[in-house]
Amino acid sequence: MTTRVAMWSGPRNISTAMMRSFGSRADTVAVDEPLYAYYLAATGIDHPGRAAILDSQPQRWQDVAAALTGPLPSAPAVHYQKHMTHHVLPEVGREWMGALTHAFLIRDPAHVVASYAKVRGEPTLDDLGYPQQLSLFRAFGGPVVDAADVLRDPARTLRRLCDALGIGFDPAMLAWAPGPRPEDGVWAPYWYAGVERSTGFAAYDPSPVEVPERLVALVEAAQPFYDELAAHRL
């Protein structure tokens, strides 16, 4: 039986590195942000590579749901689904999500906002995905891991995560070959340069971050959502 792991993360996190980690397992097939084309089609937002993204994935969430819960050609032991929580718009039904094993990758809002501000000047709370992430956690539960904990001690944190998912830890998750991977979305050339140079998780950087004054209120708005999730982290 395949364990279908839906890893829910917001942007400006280590979500792609986590996909690399799980994709390094011999028993795992990974899929990269399967709701991305739906999200772009539904919102009309212009992201880099928009046309290619729309052509590369189903644009109806119902079709995505069917693919994520339907038969898999290779019948892998683990089907790792890298999801962005802000892609789950209000119209997306959730009945199909009951077939998934949910997990949550969180990051301190100050770090997320400081990073996001470098690529988009005025993010909103919905852009960061914290409300959606907490809503999914309340609905389905599942293990919560903090990006800082992963970077501080990848082996310990990933072992706990895998145990919680019932899939067993594989040391292959701690390192990977540099370069692109077949599962990478067509948007990889715009966003994945750093990950493509990597061979493992980056070292944890304890340096404080500077949040632009205009975005301090956004950090404060996101903090309660993060705090509730962080209370459950492994």
TrEMBL record:
Family: Belongs to the class-IV pyridoxal-phosphate-dependent aminotransferase family.
GO BP terms: carboxylic acid metabolic process
Any Pfam family the entry gives: Sulfotransfer_5
Listed SUPFAM superfamilies: P-loop containing nucleoside triphosphate hydrolases (SSF52540)
InterPro entries reported for this sequence: Class-IV_PLP-Dep_Aminotrnsfr, P-loop_NTPase
Organism from which the protein derives: Actinoplanes missouriensis (strain ATCC 14538 / DSM 43046 / CBS 188.64 / JCM 3121 / NBRC 102363 / NCIMB 12654 / NRRL B-3342 / UNCC 431)
PANTHER family on file: AMINO-ACID AMINOTRANSFERASE, AMINODEOXYCHORISMATE LYASE
Name of the protein this chain belongs to: Branched-chain amino acid aminotransferase
